[in-house]
Amino acid sequence: MHDLTPWDHVHTDYSAPAAPAGPRGLAESTDDWLAAHHQAPNGHLLLTGANQMLTTLTGGRPVHLMHTTPMLDAIRATGELHGSAGCLVGALYCAPLTPTSQGLRPHNLGAYLLQTKTDTKTLVLEVRPATPGPAKGLNYLRLGGIHLDTYRAHRVFLTPEEDDHLRQSAVARLRAAAGFLDVLLADARGERTTSTTVFFHRLAATVPTMPFLGYLYFEVLSEYLLLHSATPETKAYAAEGEMNNRLYKQLAFSAVTTMGRLFDLALFNPDRAQLTELIDRIEPALALGAAPYVRRRLPHLFACAALGPGSDVAGVSFRSAGADFDTLADAAPLLAGQLVFREMRTLPRYPALFPVFEQAKATSVYAYWNRQEIAVPFNGVLPKGEIGLNLAFPRARVFVWVAETCERGLLHPTEELNLLPVPRLADLRGTALGRAAFPAPHHPAIPAARPAPALASA
After folding, report:
1. How far is residue 265 CA from its own chain's centroid?
2. DSSP string, 8-65
3. Which of 102, 312, 330, 414 shows its CA 20 to 30 Å from the CA of 173?
4. Is the pLDDT of residue 440 over 90?
5. Against a cut of 0.70, is the pTM above it?
């Protein structure tokens, strides 16, 4: 029996009147931030009645999705659709489509993918769930507890040397970053202990040691842009019930030059001057407000993502939590999980461990989604359009076509494929992470077999 409580914490219900609980002792509660987000210029897009994706998911009607892939021949050969560990733990990465009389209109995220992924083919999926789904999205920033539980349950698959390396590396990173992490907790409590200039200098310097901060930093800025942008493009998308995904795409690719080869937010660490310059390129009117927003928001988000509900921010100091891994896991279980998850990906044997640890998480979240009637999960950090297919959902019919894009940017199905959604992760080496970090090994030529020796007759 799967315990649903950890997965409840990972998901955000956009139809609920309150935000997920955070730790005690925060200067601003999670509900304070929820209210501030709703009051932002684009805050209405957090509501199910105003956000087209949420409206579709909760309406009980067929849901149309697009998926881009360079692997169409392989998909045809297997007749199967597999998930990705990089998409909502184990979903098939998609973007929403809206049926019109002229064709299927891509969400602005889908239009961006069609423009930038020119070496891929496009699939159209029609998902027909038996009942309306909830407006519950998965927030990957809160996955630390899942990572920690999975590590503990599957440690027996590690060698003693691997296990010791994971634990010692996690503690070493914590010790190196402890001073700034304590600054973040102090800010989250409302106690400013350093200037904003020093804050950003230390943030940029700490991300390489504590890569999870890069993800938090990026999502804070994405949130700022998506909720506060007032460009004509953003307003046009909002009129369609969509958040402007091009804003955070531009942010990521401008901040990290290698992002086109591997989308790795562990490398996202602009200092204050670089941050202001980045936002000025995207939307000049928001440039001056970016640093104050990050200074206020990032500590709160870090406390929630590191400690989790039930903890007391005032009772944690990372200088003392770094004695050993078990002490860290007791003080900040969610951060411990994020650390061990990222350290595991550096192990030479990770391709062999991937099916154990990552498939276990995927199977667990499939069970949660099935019980919650979630046929089509989505990225719940914000309901911005990143959506997926639950490959294990038994109460929905899924139809798949190859599609072409017309001159108006609309999609038109051209060939139906008989594909079976299979609740199994694609092989690591077939993903961008796998190809970048674990290239296929070179096998030397095998010498011709020598004739078998003659056996003496009895």
Report:
1. 10
2. HHHEEETTSSSPPP--BT-SS-HHHHHHHHHHSTTGGGGSTTT-HHHHHHTS-S-EEE
3. 312
4. no
5. yes
